[in-house]
Structure formats: C-alpha cells, structure tokens
C-alpha cells in the first residue's frame, strides 16, 4: 500500500513535581484513521538561568499514555473514593543519557484512532518553599513529538459483496476494512475459493477501529474449512479491519475471495441486504476510499409502509439467538463546563419489566466531555418489589450495549468487551459509579431485574421493579470535598478538571486521610500564626512612647492584617476571612514592607513626609508587579537602607565622630536588632518548608517584631537653641510683647510694653 507520514509537535513545557493531577503537564494529540504505526519522540532537557543546566541533578520523568481521555494516574498510591472506576493507562519512565538532555522513544503499532493524551511530571519533592529570584532554579522541560505513518486507499468491503484477490509471491498480506453501522449484532468474515500451492495457507485476522495485530482475533484457514471468523456484539459506528496474511515461505500466487455478512439485530435471521440505496441507510460515511468502483446513491432511506420509524434495537446474547429491545435516549442539559445532566424522558423513575431489559444511551461529546467525571446513581424503590427478593442489575458499556440472558452468572464482560456492573436490592438499595475522565462516545446502560432463588437468579414473574436513575457529568468527584479545591485547567484548547487537596489530605477526590492534619493540629497552627503577631505590641508601645506616631500606625496596620491574613490562609477548616483573600494578602505584604521602610527612615532621623509617601508608592507598585518576587520586594528595602547610610555618613563627617555616637547604642540595640533581623531572613529564605511552615513562619513574626523594637531609635532630644517665641494674639488686637520679658531676662516689674497694635 501507499504510506503517508505526518508529523506533530508540541511546545516545550516546564515540568513540576507531582502533588496532584493539577500539577502535571498534559499534551493532546490526534491520530488519524488507518494509522499503522505511531512513534512518540520524547525530548527532555534541563535549563538553569537561561543556559543548559549541566549542574542540575538528574530527576526521573514519568510519562503516561492513554487513548480517548487523559490518564487517571496515582503515583503516590493514595486511596480512590468509593465506587470509583479507575481506567488503565501505560506509563514510561525516562532516564538521563546526557548531562543536560535525554530522548525517549515510544512506539505503538496500529494505534487506535482519535484523541491521545500524554501526561508528564517529576517525582514528588520535599515541599521546600523557595523565595522567587533568590537563586537560579533548575527547570526540566519536556517536549513530545509524534510521527504517524498511515495507509491510504485501503480497500473497502461491502456487506454481502464478494471481493476477489490474488496475492503475488512478493506480497505478504492484504488489508481491508468494513464499516459496521449501529444495531449490528454480528460480523461474519469469510474467505472463499482459496487456492494456493498447498491448500489455503492464509491467516484471517479481524480487529475493530485499527489494523489487526499479532494478538488480534485470528483464524488459520489451513486448519479450518470453511474459513469463517465471527465477531459477536461488534462496536457500532466503527470500522472493522480485515487482514488476510500469507504463511511465511509459501511459494507462488494465492487467490481467494473475501466477503462480509452483517447481522441486523432487529432481524436476527436475516443478514443485511447486499446493497442499500443510500449511505445514510447503512449509517456509513459517504467517503470510503477504494471500493472497486461501487458508488452509493443519494436516494432517501426506506421507510415502513405507514412511514413510521422502527424502534431502535439492541442485541441480547442467547443460546437460542438474538432479540432486540428499544434503546431509550437521554436529554442533554448543559449547566456549565463539565456540569451536564442527562434526563430520561418520562423519568427519572424507570420501570424494569421482568421479561426484558431497559436500555438507555448517554452520549458524551468528543474532547469536550472527557475532562470531567461521569456519575451514575441507581436507587431502588422498595414499594415496587411486592415482597419479592428482586435484584436489579445494570451494565454500563462503551459503544455497544450488553445484556446477557444467562442467569447463572451476571456479568458485564465478554471476550472483547468490558463494562461496569451495578446492582440494587432490598438490602443495598443504592448503588453509585464514578468514572473519572471517561472516554467519549455512546455509553449504554442496560437494566435487568432478576429474582434470587436457591438455584441462583431467575426471571421474576409479575414483578416490575422501579428504580430512580440519575446520570450526570461533574468536574470533580463530590467537588473535592471540604479539604480540596476543584480546579478547571487548560492545555492549549483542551479543558479538564482536577482536585488540589490541602491540610494533608490526598487522593483523586481528596478523601485519603492517611496524612491528614487533625482538627487540633489545624487549630494550633492557626493560633500560632495569628497570635505570633501580638509581638508587634511592644514595638507599638515603644514607638508611641518615643513620639513615632506614624511608625506606630504602620505597625498596628501590619499586626492587624497579618493576623487576619493568616487566619484566612489556612488549608484546613479552621479558616476565618473578614475580606477577600487577595485584599488580605496585599495588605499583609504591604504592611510588612512598610514596617521595614518606616523603621529604617526613622533610624536615619529623617522627618520629611515625602519619604514615607515615596515608600508607600514604591512598595505598592512592586507588590502589584510581582507579589512574590525577591528583587521587587528587596529593592525598596535596600533603597531605604541606602538613604539611612547616606544620612549617617553625613552626620559622621559633619560631627567628625561615629554616628550613632554611643557604644551602648551599638552594643545593646543596633547589633542585636540586626542579628535578629538577619536570622529571620535566613529562616524565611532557606529553612521554611510546607511541613514546618506554621511554626517557622510564626518564629519569623516574632523575630521581625523583636528586631523592630531593638532598631527603633530613641526619642530625639530638643534643640538647645531657643528661637523667638510666637506672637500672642488678643481678641481683635496683636500684642507686641517684650521678648526679653518672656524669656525671663528682665525684671517684669520695671518692664513696659513697647506698643499695642491693633490688628
């Protein structure tokens, strides 16, 4: 055949240590139909400070692959919520081959067409809280590239038509495909009139959605006559691929015929007619590829004599043949992103008769619905049982309904199908099922009522069970509970939701309390972070006593907003917010930096109010630019220290003596205060982690407040030079008073008023 090669690539992204699914990097690819091989080239490289990170440590990178929806991963081996189905995925760990670069290759032969998702992350770290900009961080960048090779012009088989083929000696195999429409109960592929040098040296392989593999359903035509391969309960609305492969070492040409028969569920004794007047009547697309010159017309599909449509049927496997039951559709009601309710007509109470199943279909839109959680709930109405021991079984299957008439073993699986089983009875009247990141397409729910007897389950007589059925799509499982936050994430044009847990809780729905913080621990951490701000009371008292009223106001502002910011910033349930979180955080950061600014300006003995206004404006601008950036916060502080250094140097030069002049001021105030402040900065920058945050940050509060009490200068002494006293004003007159008399330099008895002036 003719091969076409397609290339796809994605932009490199920075990987993060795994904490929850919200911390992974997700990549979305689309593999076209008829792809015979897909090769992912996984490129990973290190960066540090804009250059190659040769000195960065090697950290393993885990990559997950899944078709149809994102992978549901659990690298920390946490517990999933109850009634949660975990779909499987394939994981690959990359190791480093070069100091700053590594490349991995992942091949998939005959991959399933459609959406593929890659998820990548770094191992979980120790949770160190690093100050942004303090040092060059090692970055691990990941870039996946996809190369696909697909066949074009694959021959299409039409049901009921015979295709003749001669396989030349240099050819190894022939590939065909046939489209299976909805409501097909059986696909039968047959090789006829096979002639070769030694009988019929052919293998017949059949697979849905993609070309067959070595482990696909296979039949050796040499050993089986006639050479027929049947597929019961095939996937609806999909291509089935037929591979006729020659035995190795067979000489000469092998000629044969291939035909396909599709069994209509509504007419189990009849095959589908070999030719229908339009592609719509076969639910087949108009474009097929090479079909040997057969073209389908555009005439309308046939209808019944009364111009009424037949009920939509489904197959039921039975030893006596197949029967069909109607499929009831559901109404889709979109409330929000990943918030969709599926309503049943004349529901939500559903009657399950004893002689036939009740079948419903739930349609999930491609790409749009795969990033949420599919929820299903069954509740049995006890009053409808009439005293019988009735059990209602439900089978949820993807792309084809499955209802078995075998009463001895109730299962939702076959050799080629796998589904989810639900059951409700008088003992357990409620059953739930949650499927995170479900595959899109049609999901079929088949409900069947059976009565329990001594010999197993048997069909009930004259008992119609009634169940309450609820199906909906939600962003997260139970909205992540009280110890988690459901986040809506985006990668390019793909949306998905994931839980981000807090207070030590883990798991897909934040329900794993193995490492959870107790209520007492949460209360203790909140009280420590809040009450440690009381240490600002002594600096406030010192500032008021020294007549530094503006500084005292800033310290009160800092103490107030730091207390309530930490009361609102707690990860658990001990939380109290008086304002919006962002407002509290901004005021806390602004108050902390303003405390440093006004303290340094006070130490410089500079009183112009313009310096305080300048600091407030600079710090507000820096916090608005980057609230966690190191230099945006450190720059104004260094600027204030520079002003203080200039002021002290000027005084030292003018007085020709070191300033401050007394050694006691240096030994008992400035040096201890500077050491305490330096210790606080070192704890904040290098010691603080997520585990010790509550007490290390509380110590930071104590040290910073204590350093302010040491560094704040004493009250300034009044100047010894006495200037002229202000003129006293009388009522309507300006009194000209002898200044010497006011200063006590002359005898008041002999002194006279120089003049009395009218205003």
UniProtKB/TrEMBL annotation:
Q: Where is the signal peptide?
A: none
Per the UniProt record, which residue ranges are transmembrane? 516-536, 548-567, 631-650, 666-687, 693-712
Q: Which GO terms describe its cellular component?
A: plasma membrane
Q: Taking every annotated instance into account, which residue ranges of this chain make up the domain EGF-like?
A: 499-510
Q: Fetch the InterPro entries from UniProt.
A: EGF, NGX6/PGAP6/MYMK
| Keywords for this protein | Cell membrane, Membrane, Transmembrane, Transmembrane helix
Report the membrane topology from the UniProt record. Answer: Multi-pass membrane protein
- Listed name of the protein: TMM8B protein
The encoding gene is Tmem8b
């Amino acid at each position: 055949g003719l091969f076409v090669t397609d290339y796809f690539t994605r932009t490199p992204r920075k990987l993060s240590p795994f904490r929850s699914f919200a911390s992974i990097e997700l990549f979305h690819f689309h593999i076209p139909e008829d792809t015979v091989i897909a090769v992912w080239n996984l490129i990973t490289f290190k960066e540090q400070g804009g250059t190659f990170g040769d000195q960065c440590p090697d950290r393993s990178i885990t990559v997950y692959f899944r078709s149809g929806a994102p992978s549901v991963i659990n690298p920390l081996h946490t517990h999933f919520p109850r009634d949660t189905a975990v779909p499987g995925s394939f994981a690959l760990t990359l190791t480093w081959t070069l100091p700053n670069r590594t490349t991995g290759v992942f091949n998939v032969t005959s991959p399933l067409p459609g959406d593929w998702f890659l998820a990548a992350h770094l191992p979980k770290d120790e949770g160190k809280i690093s100050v942004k900009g303090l040092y060059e961080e090692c970055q691990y960048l990941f870039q996946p590239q996809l190369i696909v090779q697909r066949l074009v012009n694959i021959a299409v088989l039409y049901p009921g038509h015979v295709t003749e083929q001669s396989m030349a000696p240099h050819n190894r195999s022939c590939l065909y495909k046939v489209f299976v429409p909805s409501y097909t109960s059986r696909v039968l592929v047959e090789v006829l009139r096979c002639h070769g040098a030694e009988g019929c040296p052919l293998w017949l392989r059949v697979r849905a959605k993609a070309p067959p593999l070595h482990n696909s359903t296979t039949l050796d035509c040499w050993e089986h006559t006639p050479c027929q391969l049947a597929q019961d309960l095939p996937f609806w609305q999909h291509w089935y691929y037929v591979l006729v492969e020659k035995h190795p070492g067979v000489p000469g040409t092998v000629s044969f015929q291939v035909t396909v028969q599709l069994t209509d569920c509504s007419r189990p004794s009849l095959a589908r007619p070999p030719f229908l007047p339009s592609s719509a009547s076969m639910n087949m697309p108009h474009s097929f590829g090479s079909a040997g010159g057969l073209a389908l017309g555009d005439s309308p599909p046939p209808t019944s004599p009364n111009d009424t449509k037949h009920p939509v049927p489904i197959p039921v496997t039975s030893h006596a043949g197949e029967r069909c039951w109607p499929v009831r559709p559901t109404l889709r009601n979109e409330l929000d992103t990943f918030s969709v309710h599926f309503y049943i007509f004349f529901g939500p109470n559903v009657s399950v008769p004893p002689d036939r199943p009740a079948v419903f279909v739930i349609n999930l839109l491609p790409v749009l619905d795969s990033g949420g959680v599919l929820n299903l709930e069954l509740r049995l109405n006890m009053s409808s049982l009439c005293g019988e021991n009735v059990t209602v079984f439900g089978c949820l299957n993807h792309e084809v309904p499955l209802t078995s008439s075998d009463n001895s073993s109730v299962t939702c699986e076959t050799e080629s199908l796998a589904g989810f089983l639900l059951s409700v009875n008088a003992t357990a009247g409620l059953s739930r099922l949650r499927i995170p990141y479900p595959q899109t397409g049609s999901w079929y729910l088949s409900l069947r009522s059976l009565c329990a007897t001594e010999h197993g389950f048997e069909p009930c007589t004259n008992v119609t069970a009634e169940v309450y059925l609820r199906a909906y799509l939600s962003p997260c499982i139970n909205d992540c509970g009280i110890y988690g936050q459901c986040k809506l994430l985006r990668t390019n044009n793909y949306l998905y939701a994931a839980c981000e847990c807090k207070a030590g809780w883990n798991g897909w729905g934040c329900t794993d309390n193995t490492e959870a913080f107790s209520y007492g621990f949460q209360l203790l951490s909140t009280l420590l972070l809040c009450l440690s701000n009381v240490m600002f009371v002594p600096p406030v008292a010192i500032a008021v006593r020294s007549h530094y009223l503006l500084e005292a106001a800033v310290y009160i502002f800092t103490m107030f907003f730091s207390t309530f910011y930490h009361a609102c910033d707690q990860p658990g349930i001990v939380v109290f917010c008086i304002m919006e979180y962002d407002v509290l955080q901004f005021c806390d950061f602004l108050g902390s930096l303003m405390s440093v600014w006004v303290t340094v300006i006070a130490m410089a003995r500079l009183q112009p109010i313009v310096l305080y206004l300048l600091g407030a404006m600079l710090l507000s601008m820096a916090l608005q630019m980057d609230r966690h950036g190191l230099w945006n916060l450190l720059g104004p502080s260094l600027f204030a220290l520079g002003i203080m250094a200039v002021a002290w140097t000027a005084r030292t030069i003018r007085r020709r003596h070191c300033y401050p002049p007394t050694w006691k001021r240096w030994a008992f105030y400035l040096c201890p205060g500077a050491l305490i402040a330096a210790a606080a900065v070192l704890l904040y920058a290098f010691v603080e982690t997520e585990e010790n945050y509550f007490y290390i940050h509380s110590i930071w509060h104590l040290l910073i407040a204590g350093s302010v009490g040491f560094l704040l200068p004493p009250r300034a002494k009044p100047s010894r030079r006495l200037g002229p006293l202000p003129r006293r004003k009388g009522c309507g007159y300006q009194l000209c008073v002898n200044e010497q008399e006011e200063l006590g330099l002359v005898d008041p008895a002999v002194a006279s008023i120089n003049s009395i002036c009218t205003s």
